[in-house]
Structures are given as structure tokens and as C-alpha cells.
Amino acid sequence: MSTNEAPLALGRSFHQALVSGDWDGIRALLHDDATWTLPGDNAISGTVDGADAVVERAQLIASYGLDFELLHILVSGENMALSLHNTARREDAVLDEYLATVCRLRDGKIAAIETYLSDVPGMNAFFV
């Protein structure tokens, strides 16, 4: 596998596990000390530490009924990012945001995730 193929495959696996609710699959892609940082001031904001906490955050986000539309998987020599369009609706709020979930890789697994959002106020209103 070329140096760009491994991050690309990891990105595909992460997205597929997220949309299918394969929490063990996500856990297998993470280092034990993985972190995930999200902006905003809401139920999913801040940094979580440890692979189990990263999986719990993914479960919490998915519990809001999001559609995680994959636009692109972007790769560098050593890392990858998912370009997503996330949408969801509930009675009192609509989520419609574009984001980049940047994954720093170490030895073929995700060591750190940082998410960049197009609409932090909209995210704050949705994830209460």
C-alpha cells in the first residue's frame, strides 16, 4: 500500500463504522490514548481523552440522528481528514453543517481528532 492509501483506507473505515454504528470498529481504529476536540459550547464540545471516551462521543453524536454525508477523504503523507456534510432535524432544531474531521495518525491508527465546523452557533443550538 502506498503512503497515501493507508490513510485513505483508514478514513473509509472510520466513516463506514460511524454511519453503521459499529462502535467496536471505531474503537479498533484508535490508539488507547486518542483524543477528540470539538469547538462550541454544547453537549459534545471540548476535548475527550482516551479511545473509550472517543467512542462514547461518537455514540452521543449519532444518537441525535445525524446523516453523516461523506464529501471527501483528504490525505496528506501521514494524516487524513473527512470532509462531511452533517444534517439532522428534530422538532425544535435543524442541523445543517459542513465540517472537516482531521485525524492525526500514528503507526496506522488514529491518535488525535480535531473537528472544524462551518456553523458553531448552529451546532450549539442543536446539541443541547
Automatic annotation (TrEMBL):
A Pfam family matched in the record: SnoaL_2
Domain SnoaL-like: 12-112
Alphabetical list of SUPFAM superfamilies matching this protein: NTF2-like
Protein origin, superkingdom: Bacteria
InterPro entries membership: NTF2-like_dom_sf, SnoaL-like
Coiled coil: none
Gene3D superfamilies given in the database record: 3.10.450.50
Protein name: Nuclear transport factor 2 family protein
Organism of this sequence: Streptomyces diacarni
